[in-house]
Amino acid sequence: MIRVNTNLKSIEGYKPSDRGNEEVAKLDWNECNLPIDEKYYSILRSAIASINFTEYPNINHERLINKLAAYCRLSADQIQIFNGSDSALSYVFTTFLNPDTKVLIFYPHYSQVETYIKVFTDNINYSNIVDVFGAHTYSTSDIEQNDVIYLSNPNNPTGHFLDAKIVEGLLSKYPDKLFIIDEAYYEFCGYSCVHLVKEHKNIIVSRTFSKAFSLASARLGYICCNKELLHHIDKIRNTKEVNSFAQALGEAALDNFSYIQDRVDLVNENMSIFKTGLKELQVDFVDSKANFVLIKIAEVGKLIKKLKEYKILVRDRSSFAGLENCVRISIGTKEEMGKILAVIKEHKSQFQNGN
């Protein structure tokens, strides 16, 4: 009999929403789906034009890592790239988890990470974020009883950002605990914990090119941490896993960051307009610092179905405890966000705020 890792018995697997094959507005996975400037598109195409298909990718990644070091204001030996930030997090958990490791996750959270954690330990504890649509209070008292702490910041699915000063205080208070900070949405927020890597040896920050950089299909991410932690991760990292196309696209994006900033500014502008519309319709929402908004509305399933009729996909988050009747909406074009507001307004009698 072929034996399977017994820890897989407790893993249901990450279940992304079904997108089908239709041409739709994909506002469910938090990509930055705004139209790409043609000049920037040309730059990206040129970046991959001369790649040699027959060779393995550059295994040292020095060009991209040096550019990231400048971008993050860190040294090159504090950064490593991966095949997406999901892969980075998987490597981190593989490196630092043992069967007796206790992991604390601030809840609600990016649920994909649970599948990586449960391969190694079933000692997962949750600290519920209190009053998600209000004060958004984090309880840190449970940190003492755990070894590794995972925090998405800004939070996914709420979009709330926990101030870096609070994180720094926790790093100092618990120097023997490893803090993993997932900053997938940093560029939209503008606030970060990455500078804490310079002074603290118990923090790993993960980031991605899939969101603000609009390179989700390239699968490129990276982590920032002190070189001692990175040394352990590099022992098991596949040096060839980041393909040449992803590396070239990442370099081109960093070299032409003004295009990225323009897209981020437009997302934030559309976000502001959308929030104003939600306020006018008296719809509860979290004051998100990411590129999505979590709203609370009655009969959320009917809203999702109606939006799908308009060829707009959004993400049902009502299965999370405490997020009943909640849906997460990525920020798209002004036209797409206006259409969502129109649907909510048209059916307001059905879609009143859930309590």
Automatic annotation (TrEMBL):
<dbReference type="GO" id="GO:0000105">
    <property type="term" value="P:L-histidine biosynthetic process"/>
</dbReference>
<comment type="subunit">
    <text>Homodimer.</text>
</comment>
<dbReference type="InterPro" id="IPR005861">
    <property type="entry name" value="HisP_aminotrans"/>
</dbReference>
<feature type="domain" description="Aminotransferase class I/classII large">
    <location>
        <begin position="47"/>
        <end position="343"/>
    </location>
</feature>
<comment type="pathway">
    <text>Lipid metabolism.</text>
</comment>
<comment type="pathway">
    <text>Amino-acid biosynthesis; L-histidine biosynthesis; L-histidine from 5-phospho-alpha-D-ribose 1-diphosphate: step 7/9.</text>
</comment>
<keyword id="KW-0808">Transferase</keyword>
<dbReference type="InterPro" id="IPR015421">
    <property type="entry name" value="PyrdxlP-dep_Trfase_major"/>
</dbReference>
<dbReference type="Pfam" id="PF00155">
    <property type="entry name" value="Aminotran_1_2"/>
</dbReference>
<keyword id="KW-0032">Aminotransferase</keyword>
<dbReference type="GO" id="GO:0004400">
    <property type="term" value="F:histidinol-phosphate transaminase activity"/>
</dbReference>
<dbReference type="InterPro" id="IPR015422">
    <property type="entry name" value="PyrdxlP-dep_Trfase_small"/>
</dbReference>
<comment type="similarity">
    <text>Belongs to the class-II pyridoxal-phosphate-dependent aminotransferase family. Histidinol-phosphate aminotransferase subfamily.</text>
</comment>
<dbReference type="InterPro" id="IPR004839">
    <property type="entry name" value="Aminotransferase_I/II_large"/>
</dbReference>
<protein>
    <recommendedName>
        <fullName>histidinol-phosphate transaminase</fullName>
        <ecNumber>2.6.1.9</ecNumber>
    </recommendedName>
</protein>
<keyword id="KW-0663">Pyridoxal phosphate</keyword>
<dbReference type="InterPro" id="IPR015424">
    <property type="entry name" value="PyrdxlP-dep_Trfase"/>
</dbReference>
<dbReference type="InterPro" id="IPR001917">
    <property type="entry name" value="Aminotrans_II_pyridoxalP_BS"/>
</dbReference>
<dbReference type="InterPro" id="IPR050106">
    <property type="entry name" value="HistidinolP_aminotransfase"/>
</dbReference>
<dbReference type="GO" id="GO:0030170">
    <property type="term" value="F:pyridoxal phosphate binding"/>
</dbReference>
